[in-house]
């Protein structure tokens, strides 16, 4: 999914002035972080509270950071294909430390992220897998209310209780912090499309598994 960086960052910069729906009923919508005022661009948000979602050995010789959006079809294709091979061949064998960072092109991607993070790091990648598997269904479910409810269904399928799920989707501070965190990293790494990757600090575009394998093996010196 290619987007001009300036448009992306202009869209998310208003998050600190977000409009928030706070009614407790399950049928209400979670945050829309893309409505707000210009003063939000000047807001300072502490992003140190955001947990990095990581797989693999902490001391692995190769680090791969993926920037992806839950609403990006190319990201879904990567996670249903090359990622699974990458995990089996390199992450699970201790050769790659894999870091997943969400990109928010729209509010639906943010809502999906809040569901994926709701049960903590232990379930994050499993819930992400469910979100990507069902992307074609939930992302096209209809309007915001229908999409939010489909994401709730995924959360419940993953074992998240209703009260906890509603608390996660209703956490305005978390929504604001996640968008600020995304913007901070994506600006630094010059991310303007998804999925994009950093392999040991070098930016790499999406490609077939054999391309990733060759790049990783080059870093491993094999």
TrEMBL record:
Residues spanning the signal sequence: none
InterPro entries (alphabetical): Thioredoxin-like_fold, Thioredoxin-like_sf, Thioredoxin_domain
Taxonomy, superkingdom: Bacteria
Occurrences of domain Thioredoxin (ranges): 25-159
Function: May be required for disulfide bond formation in some proteins.
Protein's name in the database: DsbA family protein
